[in-house]
From TrEMBL:
One of its GO terms (biological process) is base-excision repair. Transmembrane segments: none annotated. Residues 2-119 form the Formamidopyrimidine-DNA glycosylase catalytic domain. Its cofactor is Zn(2+). One of its GO terms (molecular function) is 8-oxo-7,8-dihydroguanine DNA N-glycosylase activity. This is Formamidopyrimidine-DNA glycosylase. It comes from Blastococcus tunisiensis. Residues 235-269 form the FPG-type domain. It holds the Pfam family Fapy_DNA_glyco. It comes from the Bacteria.
Length: 284
C-alpha cells in the first residue's frame, strides 16, 4: 500500500509534471472506483491543474477549484504516460481504473492489481467532503512529541493498530508501522497506553526518522521506480525468514485474515516469538 512517503513523492512528481497543464479529459475504466457524482468527472475537462497536495494517504489534485482526490488503497498505483492513446479505454478490462489526459498528450493512469478492489476516486469542491479525509488525525510528520504522547496515552489497544489508525495519526500503513516498531525496539502487540517515557521517546523518534528517510529516498524518483525504492529500504516488512540486518535473528511473521506483520524477536520482543493471533493468546 502506498503510504505517506510514496504519496508525498507522487504529489511532488505531479507538481513538476502536471501543474500548469489543462486536464483535457478523464476516462473512467472502473465504475466502482468513482465514489461521487456531483460534480461529475466530466466537470474537470478543460480546467487547469493548479496544485497537488497530500492528506494522509490521499492524493489531491486541485483542478481550478475542483479537486480530484485519489486513495490508492492496497494495490493501486499511478503510472505516468507519455503519448496517451486517443481512444478511450474499455471499461472493466484489466487493472486500469482511471486515465487522465493532459493538454500536451501526456497524462497518467490509475491502476489496481488483484480482484479485491479498493482504489477510490472523488471529485469534490473541497477535500473535506471526502469522508476519509474529514476523519484524518494529525499528519505523522507534523505532530510534535507532546501531541504524540497524548495520542498514544489516550489510545487503548496495540501499538501496531494505533500507528495504522488514520483517525489517530495519518499517513502510516502496514509496511512503515513494521519498520517504525523495529527501529523503536518495541513489540507490535504492546499496549499504546502502556508505554514508558523512554519508549514513547523512542517511538516518536522512530516515526520521524523512518518516514523522513523513506521520503528522502523517494525524492526525485520517477513514479515507475518508487515501489522498488520502497522495497529496497525495508528492514523487516515483507522479509519473513530473512536475517534481521541489525542483529541477524530471523525475521518472523504474524498472519491475520487479510494482512500480516513482520518483526524481529531479538530486537523487539526479548527473543520471544509472538503467537499467531488466530491460534493462541498474544504474547505481550
Amino acid at each position: 500500500m502506498p503510504e505517506l512517503p510514496e504519496v508525498e513523492a507522487l504529489a511532488a512528481f505531479l507538481r513538476e509534471n502536471a501543474v500548469g497543464h489543462v486536464l483535457a479529459r478523464a476516462d473512467l475504466a472502473s465504475v466502482q472506483a468513482i465514489k461521487t457524482f456531483d460534480p461529475p468527472l466530466s466537470a474537470l475537462a478543460g480546467l487547469e491543474i493548479t496544485g497537488v497536495a497530500r492528506h494522509g494517504k490521499f492524493l489531491d489534485l486541485d483542478v481550478s477549484g475542483l479537486h480530484l482526490v485519489v486513495h490508492l488503497a492496497r494495490a493501486g498505483w499511478l503510472h505516468w504516460r507519455t503519448g496517451l492513446p486517443e481512444a478511450p479505454p474499455k471499461p472493466g478490462k484489466g487493472p486500469l481504473a482511471l486515465r487522465v489526459h493532459l493538454d500536451d498528450g501526456n497524462g497518467f493512469d490509475l491502476t489496481e492489481q488483484g480482484t479485491r478492489k479498493g482504489l477510490a476516486v472523488y471529485v469534490v469542491r473541497s477535500p473535506a467532503e471526502v469522508p476519509g479525509i474529514a476523519r484524518l488525525g494529525p499528519d505523522a510528520l507534523e505532530v510534535d512529541r507532546e501531541q504524540f504522547a497524548a495520542l498514544m496515552a489516550g489510545r487503548s489497544g496495540q501499538l501496531k493498530g494505533a500507528l495504522t489508525d488514520q483517525t489517530l495519526i495519518s499517513g502510516i500503513g502496514n509496511a512503515y508501522s513494521d519498520e517504525i516498531l523495529h527501529a523503536a525496539r518495541l513489540s507490535p502487540f504492546k499496549g499504546a497506553d502502556k508505554l514508558k517515557d523512554d519508549e514513547l521517546v523512542r517511538l516518536f523518534d522512530a516515526v520521524r526518522a523512518t518516514l523522513t528517510a523513506a521520503l528522502e529516498r523517494q525524492r526525485g524518483q520517477q513514479a515507475a521506480t518508487m515501489k522498488g525504492e520502497k522495497r529496497s529500504g525495508l528492514t523487516v516488512h515483507a522479509r519473513t525468514g530473512l536475517p534481521c540486518p541489525v542483529c541477524g535473528d530471523t525475521v518472523r511473521e504474524v498472519s491475520f485474515a487479510d494482512t500480516s506483520l513482520q518483526y524481529c524477536p531479538t530486537c523487539q520482543t526479548g527473543g520471544k516469538p509472538l503467537a499467531d493471533r488466530r491460534m493462541s493468546k498474544l504474547l505481550r
